[in-house]
Amino acid sequence: MVKQFDQRHRQSRRILIMGVSGSGKSTIGEEVADRTGCEYIDGDKYHPPENIEKMTKGVSLTDEDRQGWLEALANLYAQHRRDDKSVMIGCSGLKKSYRDILRQGDPDLVILFLDGSYDTILQRMQERQHFFSPEMLQTQFDTLQPPGSDEAISIDISKSFDNVIDQCVNELEALD
Prior knowledge:
alpha/beta; 176 residues; 5 strands; 47% helix; Shikimate/glucono_kinase; 5-stranded parallel sheet; Gluconokinase; Rossmann fold
């Protein structure tokens, strides 16, 4: 059964859906945003060309590379907050310092952490022939500073796609 939010009683909210590459941010984020009635933005589309070029060559981004990109996403959150509109942005948010930059756009930012093991995510990436290599995935896990329960809602992605979406929707609904 597809569960939809009751739009009449819902406040606007800004949501970060985060996790390592291949965790499902875009696929899950789009579906959850659709079911919760908010706009979905793929944060990767806001990377400057030089970042895209580096990633295409298999070169990991530095904190300096990410700074302007994260600030652009924080500005998107701030704009949606000013306009009292809900938005969900898919962004890796690997480090706490990155999430802190994003939170500058909205101190009430809700974070959904798509939490899965290296093996689970690697298997899924190989099944869909994702451009990320196993080495780059390992780099993402090496960089990841998992958020604590005081910072984010952890979603177990080892379950089925539908179950993961239901978990996300149910957690967001419980906040209302």
